[in-house]
Amino acid sequence: MADIILAGFGGQGVLTAGLILINVAVKQDKNVTWTSSYGAEMRGGTASCSVVISDEEIGSPYPTKLDVLLALNEPSYDKFLPMVREGGTVIVNSSLVKKENYPDNVNVWKIAATDLANEQGAARNTNIYMLGAFVKATGMMEKDFFIEQMNAYFEKKGKINPANAVSIERGYELAEKV
């Protein structure tokens, strides 16, 4: 079982990233839950979603200890880091999380997701770069399968964008362990 929180500012695609993640997990025959939380101001306010992925039946969709944290901004990193269990994985958007020291008891991965998305001309793909880093850091899902299922998710919505696959590939390639 993996208890995961994705968190950042509203408008960064945090909730969409969580939905992509559960859709891919379902295609792997996993049990999943997804819950969201966001500030009243939406864009610019705090947004987070909790994802639980398991081979077994899931008892609660609200994790108290995290296996994985994807922090798209520094306030989210500060808020959710204490929930990460020892040995857990923290993936930070180093474009916005400007920490010099990270805890020794968790595995920290960095990806300059916002900068990379802006350089690509796809500013809305910060979340997709983070998912590429997630695939690499956790090894929970095979990269090509993830891309295939992510594309299928967007195809159902009529929002096919070739930049998404590039963002996963580059996020996977450029994520580095601290």
TrEMBL record:
It comes from the Bacteria. Keywords: Oxidoreductase. Residues 10-173 form the Pyruvate/ketoisovalerate oxidoreductase catalytic domain. Gene3D superfamilies: Pyruvate-ferredoxin oxidoreductase, PFOR, domain III. SUPFAM superfamilies: Pyruvate-ferredoxin oxidoreductase, PFOR, domain III. InterPro entries: 2-oxoglutarate_synth_KorC (IPR052554), Pyrv/ketoisovalerate_OxRed_cat (IPR019752), Pyrv_flavodox_OxRed_cen (IPR002869). The keyword Nuclease does not apply. This is 2-oxoacid:acceptor oxidoreductase family protein. It comes from Ruminococcus turbiniformis.
